[in-house]
Specification:
two-stranded parallel ribbon; single chain
Length: about 200
């Protein structure tokens, strides 16, 4: 869209583009339905979440058809041409996360949002394990400041019971020692651009 063209040039592509967007959104809805099954079945009480979690797309259902998407693209065309990019596309549809029917972003505390995000990732992990005969690689950034010891113990115990490879980063020395001793994790350190293994930091 950066190159200014006559509007009619884009009408040819809008029909194909609409079909692609509709197909991607349909696949997203299937994925969300599967994730919600796991969210419904899993117990997140140890993370402080005793209410039901629900995951959905922001876009309205009637806008998912090829015809509706085409109308939306056509209606946005003049503004899109002025902006130089398309406002509506499959990846622009935001996700909504609900706790007991309430939008977490609007009504949930920061703590609830963080715990729900962890729960969502665990649901994605369960879905992956259920559908693929592959041990996934799980990457986790330092959560020692986000979770108390009871919650991170639950999370670590949960992951240890799953056929996954876990890589975790942390700058918290005490947390590093606790994890290494309690879960027999191998410690790799990075200092001044160099890697080395071992629980104790080199001087």
């Amino acid at each position: 869209l950066k190159r200014k063209r006559d509007e009619s040039f884009f009408y040819i592509f809008d029909e194909l583009f609409s079909a692609v967007i509709a197909e991607i959104l349909a696949l997203k809805r299937v994925l969300i339905e599967k994730v919600n099954i796991h969210l419904h079945e899993m117990n997140f009480a140890p993370l402080g979440i005793r209410e039901k979690l629900f995951f959905t797309l922001l876009g309205r259902t009637e806008e998912q058809s090829v015809e509706k998407i085409g109308e939306r693209l056509k209606g946005n065309l003049k503004l899109d041409l002025n902006l130089g990019y398309t406002q509506f596309h499959a990846q622009s549809e935001d996700y909504l996360f609900f706790l007991n029917g309430l939008d977490l972003k609007l009504f949930g505390s920061l703590g609830q949002q963080k715990m729900a995000y962890i729960g969502l990732n665990l649901a994605f992990l369960e879905l992956y394990l259920a559908e693929r005969n592959i041990s996934p690689l799980v990457l986790i950034d330092d959560f020692s400041g986000e979770l108390d010891r009871y919650k991170w113990n639950y999370l670590m115990d949960y992951l240890q019971m799953r056929p996954v490879q876990l890589i975790m980063t942390t700058a918290n020395e005490a947390f590093c020692h606790q994890l290494a001793q309690q879960y027999e994790m191998k410690v790799l350190r990075v200092k001044e651009g160099e890697f080395y293994s071992g629980l104790e930091e080199r001087q």
